[in-house]
Specification:
The protein is mainly α. The chain has a domain at about 40-110: Tetratricopeptide repeat domain (Serine Threonine Protein Phosphatase 5, Tetratricopeptide repeat). It is about 65% helix and about 0% strand. The chain contains 17 helices and no strands. The protein is elongated. It starts with about 35 loop residues before the first helix and ends in a 9-residue tail after the last helix.
């Protein structure tokens, strides 16, 4: 059994921001005189104190007061707190409302959050068209994850017309802005020549960049290239570590692929029991290649007793996912045995 297919980000990427830059236009006031000037400077200081307490001290009361006086970072932090249940009871509807308010005040990351939540129907009705509008708004303000998510919409033709070149440009913009999913998704297009010139070398570089930034599908794809020596040296030892990282992070295809390494003894000691467990993990998550590999173990009796009933069961699961190899193996096992020759 060979290695499974390379993967892209499944669906749209969540937005996270650990620390906000507090930018208050009121601090740039100049040439003010008299009582009015003093009042405005005092107000600016009060606003700055609120924003600082909100962001640096996670003071939700300060965040609420900051949001009430239209300081966008206060609204964003409130949204994040209600989304995550940090210091308050989680309330996804309230989170959406606070992110929406922060977005209207000019916070690009909040706009990206609103788009993500509208895409998934979190805190609001699922609305892909509204999601795309907010992704575009945030991307226009140079929010990189929003650009990556807008690229997915163009690649899939979700709401917007299918446009692979535009998708690649948005992934490039996202990657340049520091979003690792943009790097990984652009790498996928370049590896397979989808909408762009095929370049395995550039794809491997982008997977390296995406994986280093924590984009787990990039780690899995980089591992496949490292095993096969595509656009670089064969590195089965490194591939095993990359597959493990991706598998532990929830990329089921990488669990199955790590199982292949243990089955074949590539980069790791041969261990059919570990291979079986990894194939099961992948198959249970819906990875057809994991089901096929597991069926192969039971058909051949590799590390397990020969069990054609189980083999058929796993091939059937792969076939149900429209996998041609799984269907072919199932058909072969379900053929009636030839009648014995007459003497």
């Amino acid at each position: 059994m060979g290695f499974g297919r390379t993967q892209q980000t499944r669906g749209f990427t969540a937005i996270r921001r650990a620390l906000l830059n507090v930018l208050l236009a009121v601090l740039s006031l100049t040439a003010l005189h008299g009582c009015a000037a003093t009042e405005r400077v005092d107000a600016a200081r009060d606003d700055y104190a609120l924003a600082t307490a909100c962001v640096n001290k996670a003071d939700l009361d300060a965040c609420q007061r900051a949001c009430d006086v239209r300081i966008r970072s206060g609204c964003y932090q409130l949204g994040a707190a209600y989304r995550d249940g940090a210091g308050v009871e989680a309330d996804i509807v309230r989170a959406y409302r606070e992110f929406e308010r922060a977005c209207e005040l000019g916070d690009a990351t909040a706009c990206a959050e609103v788009g993500y939540m509208a895409q998934r129907g979190q805190g609001t009705n699922q609305d892909p068209a509204r999601a795309v509008r907010y992704f575009r708004r945030a991307c226009d303000a140079n929010q990189p994850t929003a650009c990556a998510n807008l690229g997915i919409a163009y690649q899939l033709g979700t709401v917007v017309p299918l446009d692979l070149l535009r998708a690649s440009q948005l992934y490039q913009r996202a990657c340049a802005g520091g979003d690792p999913s943009g790097c990984g998704n652009l790498g996928y297009l370049m590896q397979h020549g989808i909408g762009v010139a095929r370049s395995p070398l550039r794809a491997r570089e982008l997977y390296e960049q995406g994986c280093a930034g924590g984009h787990l599908p990039s780690c899995g794809n980089l591992a496949i290239m490292a095993v096969d020596g595509v656009a670089g040296a064969k590195e089965p030892n490194r591939a095993s570590k990359l597959f493990l990282t991706a598998c532990e992070g929830g990329i089921a295809e990488s669990c199955s692929n790590l199982g292949v390494l243990y089955e074949q003894g590539l980069g790791v000691p041969k261990d059919l029991e570990k291979a079986r467990k990894l194939f099961e993990q992948g198959c249970d998550a819906g990875v057809a290649d994991g089901c096929i590999a597991l069926g192969g173990l039971y058909e051949r009796g590799a590390g397990v007793d020969v069990d054609l009933v189980r083999a058929r069961r796993f091939y059937r699961r792969a076939c149900a996912a429209d996998d041609k190899v799984g269907c072919a193996r199932l058909a072969r096992l379900e053929q009636p045995a030839p009648a014995p020759e007459r003497p």
